[in-house]
Write a structure and sequence with these properties.
The complex is a heterodimer of chains A (237) and B (236).
Chain A: E1 5-6, E2 13-14, E3 19-22, E4 27-28, E5 32-35, E6 38-41, E7 45-50, E8 53-58, E9 70-78, E10 82-86, E11 92-96, H1 97-100, E12 120-128, E13 134-137, E14 145-146, E15 150-153, H2 159-163, H3 168-177, E16 180-183, E17 188-192, H4 195-210, H5 217-227
Parallel strand pairs in A: 4-8, 11-13
Antiparallel strand pairs in A: 1-3, 2-7, 3-6, 5-6, 7-8, 9-10, 9-12, 10-11, 12-13, 12-14, 15-17, 16-17
Helix pairs in contact in A: 3-5, 4-5
Chain B: E1 18-22, E2 30-36, E3 39-50, E4 63-70, H1 86-99, E5 111-121, H2 126-140, E6 150-157, E7 160-163, H3 167-170, E8 177-185, E9 190-194, H4 202-230
Parallel strand pairs in B: 4-5
Antiparallel strand pairs in B: 1-2, 2-3, 3-5, 6-7, 6-8, 8-9
Helix pairs in contact in B: 1-2, 2-4
The chains are: A alpha+beta (237), B alpha+beta (236).
Chain lengths: 237, 236
């Protein structure tokens, strides 16, 4: 059998319509499609060769809700049976009363005493239907209402980089700035600490998303945090 | 026949100098700029996002909404009155129809992808420049696309077949002028826009499409390079 010809290099940028490979023994992965013998790019992305599969890693684009994602949402409406949430995507999510709390809620109770309009909450996606109806739950570790602090928005594709391997990056920022940080997979990040520390954490996160493609990023951010660290208040002055 | 040489000295199958850049509008989900001669187009893409008014929502697929807008003092002639006109509404529609064949919006039911094309200055060929910019901006927004779209105009000035007419040729006084914008998916060679203002014979049209194909491939290469340049350095 004739060997297939791969037209692109690993970790190269590919644009929609570009032919990535010709031949039947290479398989089209995410972000690609097959047209006859050819494998063609379906989006703008980074070429990743995974054995015989070619896939494209997205570099841009809005957040798409996925089951089991932990996201930060804003309450936009309160109904009879639950809350409607803005997910920072094209679709809103539904938090039903029974997924909201293990407390007993009286029939006809005023639901705003739990989550009011404009509140931000950390929740987890339970289910996404084909019509993009989203169900979320508040039952799980770390899922809660966010009080105080501030919310910033970043590109959802950069979130894995901000979290780092086993959370290394975000733990480092937390320790250096003494802020509480929650990173939602929808690109919303909650930061709570002193004003100067919050600013430093935001700067660090913006730096990560701007330089997300470079190597040795953890060391670079470490240096940045050490250089700009906010001096701790002493009692002498 | 009097039209022996093009007014700006180009060859008959040569387009004006082009320039493209991606990511020019940070707040947009995707954006691009495309210049061809003195025609400048900026495109910004937002979405997929929640679609209102709600009656426009389609549970089968997301929809594409295009807006083409010439700025008030963009043309060399009279001031363009701001706001929509019959002309801008038509061009918005044909732009949408030219871009839709490459997009796959079925994964985004009930939502909308908005494309805003702004033209700060124009000198003919503006719908083509707009389509070129918009297709780059859509790719930059990370949408599922089969291909890019490249567009250019061609036609006949007096008795000469020419590619990429500028304003002086479009308004050539001493002879008939035909102006034909075309949009093509460069990899499959399929045509997604073909309009005609003026008259050419069938043979001339076929010849012109052949002439424009070469130019369209040049435009495609520039579009491709602009998209790759935005993420230069990501490889290493």
């Amino acid at each position: 059998m004739k060997m297939s010809e791969i037209k692109v290099k690993d970790k190269e940028i590919s644009v929609p319509g570009e032919v990535l490979a010709v031949g039947m023994d290479v398989l089209p992965g995410a972000g690609t499609y097959r047209e006859g013998e050819k494998i063609v790019a379906n989006r703008l992305g980074l070429v990743m060769m995974d054995g015989r599969t070619i896939k494209l890693l997205p570099l841009s684009g809005r957040y798409m809700p996925k089951t089991n994602d932990t996201i930060i949402c804003k309450v936009i409406d309160v109904g009879f049976n639950g809350w409607r949430l803005d997910t920072n995507s094209a679709y809103s999510a539904m938090l039903s009363m029974k997924d909201a709390t293990s407390e007993f809620i009286q029939r006809g109770a005023n639901l705003t005493q739990y989550y009011d309009l404009g509140d931000h909450i950390v929740c987890q996606i339970v289910n996404v239907t084909s019509q993009k109806l989203i169900d979320v739950t508040m039952k799980g570790p770390g899922l809660r209402k966010l009080k105080g602090g501030r919310i910033i928005e970043v590109d959802a594709n950069k979130v894995p980089r901000i979290i780092g391997k086993q959370g290394s990056m975000v733990v480092m920022i937390k320790e250096a700035t003494q802020c509480n940080i929650v990173v939602g997979q929808n690109g919303l990040i909650w930061i709570d600490g002193g004003p100067m520390n919050e600013l430093l954490a935001i700067q660090a996160i913006r730096k990560i998303s701007a330089e997300s493609h470079t190597t040795g990023l953890t060391d670079k951010i470490k240096g940045f945090l050490e250089q700009n660290s906010v001096p701790k208040k002493t009692h002498q002055d | 026949m009097t039209y022996k040489q093009r007014i700006d000295g180009r060859k008959f199958d040569e387009m004006r100098p082009i320039e493209a850049k991606v990511g020019v509008i940070p707040r947009a989900d995707g954006s691009a700029m495309f210049k061809i001669g003195n025609t400048w187009a900026y495109a910004a893409v937002y979405g997929p996002r929640n679609l209102h008014p709600k009656f426009m929502q389609d549970p089968q697929t997301g929809i594409l909404r295009c807006s083409y807008n010439m700025m008030p003092f963009s043309s060399s002639g009279e001031r363009v009155r701001p706001g929509g006109s019959r002309r801008s509404k038509e061009i918005s529609l044909v732009t949408q129809k030219a871009l839709l064949p490459v997009l796959n919006l079925e994964d985004y039911p009930n939502s909308v992808v908005d494309v805003f094309i702004e033209l700060p200055q124009t000198e003919a060929g503006s719908r083509c420049a707009g389509i070129c910019a918009a297709s780059m901006a859509l790719a930059d927004a990370g949408l599922d696309m089969k291909d890019l779209v490249s567009a250019v105009s061609f036609g006949k000035v007096d008795d000469k077949l020419v590619v990429d007419l500028d304003y002086s040729e479009e308004s050539y006084p001493d002879g008939g002028v035909a102006d034909i914008p075309i949009a093509m998916l460069p990899n499959s060679g399929k045509i997604s826009l073909l309009q005609m203002d003026g008259e050419v014979t069938k043979e001339e049209l076929m010849k012109l499409i052949g002439m424009s194909k070469k130019v369209l491939m040049d435009i495609y290469e520039v579009q491709k390079k602009a998209l790759k340049d935005k993420y230069k350095g990501v490889e290493d």
